[in-house]
Specification:
Blueprint (H helix, E strand, L loop, with lengths): L97 H4 E3 L4 E6 L2 E7 L5 H28 L4 H16 L7 H49 L5 H15 L5 H50 L5 H18 L4 H48 L7 H18 L4 H29 L1 H30 L3 H29 L1
Antiparallel strand pairs: 1-2, 2-3
Helix pairs in contact: 2-3, 2-4, 3-4, 4-5, 4-6, 6-7, 6-8, 8-9, 8-10, 9-10, 11-12
């Protein structure tokens, strides 16, 4: 004989078995996107055994039981089920003693005790009453798991407050209509506590929205201020790009309270319009200035092209440099004409300066040849030193000077060296000539003799002053007289050498 179904081995029709929870819930501490429809369904606990959920329909009275010997093997009962989305079909561990919260009547009806009295939650036509209470106690355990998971979800704030409130309402209706045996009032109380938690979350979200609104207001006000600053400035190049970037930032911000948002948008829009009008006016004025610059540059170009063939090198080069200054001062012409005008102007300049460079290159080659000739003359002149025959040296130097002048210009960088070298030879010849004149001049001899006599008298006088100052102990006067005496003696020695030269 087959016995009644055990709570640990329930029979569930294939079409009513639940494979998985259609609305899984993230573990506590993780954030998931808000669902489109709030659902109270929660993931099952660790034990995966599937159990049937009886229907809330009135429980039918079972027929009289036949004796075990007379009745055939009874088929396993097929209890009615709640929809899977309403109540998780799981075998949950016992959360409380079901015998404390329910009973099984003689007719097999299972009752649960509530604050309003007993109410039937199902039937157990066959088997032991303890097994029935255990079965419905496990259903209560499933409700406890559902409530616990909902508590964790609500307290973690993973769902929006409205969705959380809907889930709590659904869970409360599950508890009120649960076909389970246990302390249902305690579960309802736990769900009631979640109402206050949801209210706190609502308040927090309102505060966050207010904070976001204030941040958006500050940001939009800053955008309006910056746009107004750009509208008053003259940054015509990057200003337009900056205003476009500000517009993109504005669109990304949340909409504010209508009056405030409209007022800030009016400021921002007005600034953009003002900037655009001023920018267009600026470029229109700039276009007129560029046309005037084109006319001035055309006049400069005509003069430059007329000077391009000139051979009056220095004045023409100076004038072309002045025309370049005028060209820069004229400002830019229209972009389509600027490059053409500039190429023609540069061509005129290059034509003149290239011609001048060719002439100067030929002149430089000639000057290098002149340098070589003057180097040879300088070497010839330096061979006259030291002078031994004054008359012959003077005659040779005059010939060198005549050929030097006939050669012409040399490179500018060697002029000083060549002129200095020839000048030293000339000065040496001149010094020899003067010395010869002085040596043969009676007047010079007389002057030399007079100078020696005067210095000898001065030396004698200073010697007496030194002796007298020393005798009277005046060291300062003696030192001063001695210093003067030393100077006069050096002068006397030089004068005596000069006199000796005259007397040779």
């Amino acid at each position: 004989m087959t016995g009644p179904p055990s709570p640990a081995d329930p029979v569930v029709p294939a079409e009513e078995q639940v494979v998985g929870d259609p609305n899984p819930v993230s573990e506590p501490g993780t954030v998931e996107p808000a669902p489109t429809e709030p659902s109270p369904a929660l993931p099952p606990p660790a034990e995966p055994s599937v159990v049937p959920a009886p229907s809330p329909r009135p429980v039918p009275r079972p027929p009289a039981r036949p004796s075990p010997s007379a009745r055939p093997a009874a088929p396993k009962p097929k209890p009615t089920l709640l929809p899977p989305s309403v109540e998780p079909v799981i075998e949950a561990p016992l959360q409380s003693d079901p015998a404390q919260w329910g009973r099984v009547a003689e007719d097999g009806t299972v009752y649960v005790r509530t604050a309003d009295g007993e109410r039937p939650v199902g039937s157990w036509p066959e088997g032991e009453p303890a097994d029935a209470l255990t079965f419905y106690g496990r259903r209560f355990g499933a409700l406890v798991v559902e409530v616990e998971l909902l508590e964790r979800r609500v307290r973690a704030g993973v769902a929006r407050p409205d969705e959380a409130a809907t889930a709590v309402t659904h869970a409360r209706s599950h508890v009120d209509e649960a076909q389970a045996v246990g302390d249902l009032a305690a579960l309802t109380a736990r769900l009631d506590v979640l109402d206050a938690v949801i209210s706190e979350h609502r308040a927090a979200r309102r505060a966050e929205r207010a904070k976001a609104q204030e941040a958006g207001r500050v940001e939009k006000q800053a955008i309006a201020v910056e746009a107004e600053s750009l509208a008053e400035g003259e940054d015509w190049r990057s200003g337009a790009d900056r205003l476009r970037a500000l517009l993109d930032r504005w669109k990304a911000l949340p909409r504010l309270e209508r009056k405030t948002d409209d007022a800030l948008w009016h400021r921002f829009s007005t600034a953009r319009t003002t900037y655009t009008r001023r920018r267009r006016s600026h470029f229109a004025e700039q276009a007129g200035e560029r046309e005037d610059a084109k006319q001035r540059k055309e006049k400069i170009l005509a003069e430059a092209e007329a000077l391009s063939g000139s051979t009056d090198w220095a004045p023409t080069a100076a004038r072309l440099r002045a025309l370049m200054t005028d060209w820069k001062a004229a400002g830019p012409a229209p972009r389509t004409d600027e490059e053409t005008l500039w190429r023609r102007f540069r061509t005129a300049q290059d034509s003149f300066f290239e011609s001048r460079s060719k002439v100067f290159a030929e002149r430089d080659r000639t000057e290098v040849e002149h340098q070589q000739q003057k180097d040879a003359l300088l070497a010839e002149a330096e061979r006259l030193l030291p002078i031994t025959d004054l008359a012959a040296a003077k005659a040779t130097l005059r010939g060198i000077q005549e050929r030097w002048l006939a050669i012409g210009n040399v490179p500018r960088g060697v002029v000083a060296r060549l002129e200095s070298g020839l000048r030293q030879v000339e000065e040496a010849v001149r010094a020899g000539d003067q010395a010869e004149w002085k040596r043969t001049s009676p007047e010079a001899l007389a002057r030399a003799e007079a100078t020696v006599s005067q210095l000898e008298a001065s030396v004698a006088q200073l010697e007496q002053q030194v002796v007298k100052a020393t005798e009277r102990g005046d060291a300062k006067a003696a030192a001063s007289a001695q210093e003067s005496l030393d100077a006069r003696r050096s002068w006397l020695a030089e004068a005596e050498r000069t006199l000796a030269d005259f007397r040779r």
